[in-house]
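Design job #97: recover the sequence.
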């Protein structure tokens, strides 16, 4: 059995490796073509290539469930085409024992998914997005096409670019809202640097232009430096430019708590949190579904048809997932339920097909 386990493991892992190379190559080509459209005098072709390289781990992480699905389908399909599965069963190896042999390399993919999504991809994604924002902004003022808006206390702030690490900001615009929901003051600072001291921590703004709105006049003032006391740490700011789906699990949880403390809707971050936390489970379920197809409807099918079915399953899973995500935000459905729905559907389908295998 040790030799059989090793043979199945090597075949499935090799198939997954081929699938990840093919899918990643296509994804990188399209991503590079899209990134070239953003190049200008400040953001060069080399910057675009560096951005693609830094975001590659994130792209692979997002594709891992479908890579595992395709790898299992192709790897077992090769064994089925060579009649090796029939020989194993004739030798007394049960179907469920073969399934267990396939799930062993799948567990490695699940562990790799957690490590990649928590410790490797998010920091590199943050570095890529920060560098791109800084390069495109050229350290200049506010741009409506760049940066991010956030509400902090009684202020709405726009940060044009956040340097890697989150301790240096470019183009900080603030709008202070009064008790009657009117704008009472606005200011713009060219840059802000985080100052961390034992007694207090604050942001030191540079080259500040401020306008105060009173019932009878608008008062304009300029400051070379100003201390900005706000509860925004560099760790929190460093994830502002990253989409929720591309942040770490711990970062999503921390940011959701921050949103709730500010009285804002954190459903998007809760949804991304459960989606990333349950991705290994989704990977496992898709592999079981692939196994059920190999032992069932696709036992005598060609390799091309198996690849087509893998693409169809992956597309169907993605469609259900994409439908449930906005529905949960729009109708107030539990984010956990929205993430679990496509997983439970695929699990039920896979187990039903496996029960029919003899």
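Job complete. Output follows.
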């Amino acid at each position: 059995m040790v030799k059989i386990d090793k043979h199945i493991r090597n075949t499935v892992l090799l198939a997954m490796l081929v699938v990840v190379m093919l899918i990643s190559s296509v994804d990188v080509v399209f991503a590079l073509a899209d990134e070239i459209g953003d190049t200008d005098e400040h953001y060069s072709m080399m910057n675009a290539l560096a951005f693609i390289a830094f975001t590659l781990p994130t792209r692979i992480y997002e594709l891992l469930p479908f890579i595992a699905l395709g790898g299992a389908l192709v790897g077992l399909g090769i064994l089925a085409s060579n009649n090796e599965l029939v020989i194993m069963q004739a030798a007394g190896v049960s179907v469920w024992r073969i399934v267990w042999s396939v799930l062993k390399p799948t567990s490695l993919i699940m562990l790799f998914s957690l490590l990649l999504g928590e410790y490797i991809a998010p920091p590199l994604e943050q570095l890529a997005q920060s560098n791109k924002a800084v390069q495109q902004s050229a350290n200049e003022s506010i741009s409506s096409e760049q940066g991010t808006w956030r509400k902090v206390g009684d202020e709405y702030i726009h940060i044009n670019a956040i340097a890697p690490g989150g301790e240096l900001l470019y183009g900080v615009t603030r709008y202070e809202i009064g008790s009657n929901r009117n704008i009472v003051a606005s200011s713009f600072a060219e840059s802000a640097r985080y100052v961390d001291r034992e007694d207090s921590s604050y942001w030191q703004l540079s080259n500040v232009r401020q306008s105060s709105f009173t019932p009878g006049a608008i008062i304009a003032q300029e400051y070379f430096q100003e201390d900005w006391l706000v509860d925004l740490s560099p760790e929190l700011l460093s994830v502002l430019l990253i989409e929720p789906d591309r942040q770490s699990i711990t970062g999503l949880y921390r940011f959701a708590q921050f949103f709730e403390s500010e009285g804002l809707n954190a459903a998007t971050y809760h949804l991304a949190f459960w989606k990333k936390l349950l991705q290994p489970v989704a990977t496992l379920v898709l592999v079981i579904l692939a196994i059920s197809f190999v032992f069932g409807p696709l036992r005598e099918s060609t390799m091309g048809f198996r690849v087509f079915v893998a693409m169809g399953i992956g597309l169907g899973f993605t469609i259900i997932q994409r439908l449930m995500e906005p529905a949960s935000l729009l109708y107030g459905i539990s984010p956990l339920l929205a993430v679990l729905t496509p997983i439970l559907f695929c699990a039920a389908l896979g187990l039903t097909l496996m029960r029919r295998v003899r």
